[in-house]
Design a protein that fits this description.
Chain lengths: 258, 269
């Protein structure tokens, strides 16, 4: 029992170290990488444009629910005028970065892990290495660098759409004055809140995309399965671990910045 | 010795590779003369693909030495390996084409990522490679939209676009019917002469290999048990070579014995 726990703990430490080396190697590969800009734009398109619908839809419904719930809670204390404050701070400081990251993991992260897993299975990654092309520089670095820009942008969009959702349910459906709502939004959100939002978005982008890339890239090392099942298992692991790490990192960053 | 080493583009000596308890290469040695087409024959599981992957640095050998163009390729020496990779191409058994890239993008990829050529030059050279391999009309198609033979040719176009001195072919005819096998070997021989690269092919297709190759070698249980010209292979009295060469006759003898047994059984009944 004790031996099994020890072995499991060692394997976790080993995997964490391997993941850190993988991420470091991906950043190092940016130096001297050819035509990197073009690949960053393509990766930005994959992570950004393709995820727009899900970000807008989830952002809108999050804002609508926040507006609805917030209105009825604040109504009990006669403080409906603070609805803008509640919706905006919830979105900017917590829900925006976390939910946008979870949506991006579901859409772009899972696609990345599966794509890399298939490329590993069909020897496309080995082919790159035999050509003298760094597989990190070609496949991972552009995605990682694009994520550092795309995640904050998608988070900003999520928050903006969410604020409109809150306004829609608070003002149009429940009769709160739009001016009151937007005025409280304006007064509530400070530069520090925006900074916290951006720090979280960048961190989540870095952690989730490198984690998804790590699992896809190493799909052949999966001990429990081979072939298509290894791709499926590594994609599942990538999404589950990324989702957990978003929430864990959210707590850690909040505890430092609050 | 000096003249010999000049003539040899690739020299492999005592290559060993184990996967756990399984010894795949057990002191394999091979000489590949410059400008020749050398075929390594062997049964399935003899270690042929691992030998090529050790050369291409996809698999790291446990020990042994590889000399390329007279220089030792040290295991783990990044600079000598980088030079080797620039001058060598690898054709995978599965073709390993990028399925999300078009035929033209696939061919252009090694030029884009390993050279400082302009976009215009890369496009011209890639189109030229596709033209030479008679795939220019399919430049905008994805690998999945091409036939098996076209994919093989596309993989070859990608391999030769960087103008390598050595091309490694891993089982290029695996799973193909006899007509396609002939076509693939003819293609390798044709382009090897046209572009002047040295070709190292691993396969278990004996007939085609003997016709198309300048030299053949036989790998068995991780060791090279024969190396010579196709004529020498045909005349060899080495037991393993005889077994491999006369496998069709051996099958005939076995079948004849089985038929005789059946005939005897029917007489008994």
């Amino acid at each position: 029992m004790l031996r099994a726990i020890g072995r499991y703990s060692l394997s976790i430490v080993h995997e964490l170290g391997d993941f850190a080396l993988f991420t470091g190697q991906s950043f190092r590969s940016a130096v001297g990488a050819r035509r990197l800009g073009r690949r960053i734009v393509r990766a930005g398109f994959e992570q950004g444009v393709r995820c727009l619908p899900v970000i807008i839809i989830v952002g809108m419904f999050t804002g609508l629910v926040l507006g609805l719930q917030g209105y009825y809670v604040l109504n009990r204390f006669g403080s409906e005028s603070l609805l803008g404050t509640l919706v905006s701070l919830s979105l900017v400081r917590e829900l925006g970065p976390a939910l946008a990251a979870l949506m991006l993991v579901g859409q772009a992260g899972s696609a990345l892990a599966a794509e890399l897993g298939i490329q590993r299975n069909t020897e496309q990654i080995a082919a790159l290495e035999t050509m003298g092309v760094s597989s990190h520089a070609y496949l991972i670095t552009p995605r990682l660098l694009a994520a550092l820009v795309v995640y904050p942008m998608q988070t900003a969009l999520f928050v903006t759409v969410g604020l409109w959702g809150g306004s829609l349910s608070g003002s149009l459906l429940l009769g709160l004055e739009p001016g009151v709502y937007w005025s409280s939004v304006e007064h509530a959100v400070k530069a520090q809140d925006v900074r916290e939002c951006i720090i979280k978005a960048v961190t989540f982008g870095l952690l989730t995309i490198s984690l998804c890339a790590y699992h896809g890239f190493n799909a052949h090392r999966c001990s429990s399965a081979t072939g298509a099942r290894a791709v499926s298992a590594s994609t599942t692991r990538a999404v589950v671990q990324s989702s957990i790490i978003v929430l864990a990192a959210d707590y850690i960053i909040t505890s430092f910045l609050v | 010795m000096g003249a010999d080493s000049n003539q040899m583009l690739l020299r492999i000596e005592g290559l060993n590779k184990c996967f756990g308890e399984n010894v795949v290469l057990d002191g394999a040695s091979l000489n590949v003369p410059r400008g020749s087409l050398v075929t390594v024959l062997g049964r399935s599981g003899a270690g042929k693909s691992v030998l090529l992957k050790c050369l291409a640095d996809v698999v790291r050998p446990d020990s042994g030495s590889i000399h390329f163009d007279g220089k030792l390729l040290s295991i783990g020496d990044v600079s000598s390996r980088a030079d080797f990779r620039r001058r060598c191409s690898f054709l995978f058994q599965s073709n390993a084409l990028f399925d999300s890239l078009t035929a033209l993008e696939n061919v252009a990829l090694p030029l884009e990522q390993t050279t400082d050529l302009s976009d215009k030059e890369i496009r011209e050279r890639s189109l030229e490679a596709l033209r030479q391999i008679e795939l220019e009309a399919h430049q905008d198609r994805y690998p999945s939209q091409l036939s098996g033979g076209m994919q093989k040719r596309l993989a070859l176009a990608r391999a030769i676009v960087t103008r390598p001195e050595l091309v490694l072919f891993d089982e290029p005819t695996a799973g193909l019917d006899p007509l396609r096998r002939n076509a693939v070997f003819a293609m390798i021989a044709k382009y090897q002469r046209q572009f002047g690269f040295t070709a190292l092919v691993v396969t278990h297709d004996l007939t085609e290999a003997l016709i198309a190759s300048d030299r053949v070698a036989l790998l068995d249980k991780g060791r090279m048990c024969f190396e010579g010209t196709p004529a020498e292979f045909s005349a060899s009295t080495v037991a393993m070579v005889e077994d491999f060469r006369d496998s069709a006759e051996a099958l005939g003898r076995t079948l004849a014995a089985i038929r005789r047994g059946e005939a005897m059984q029917s007489e008994d009944s």
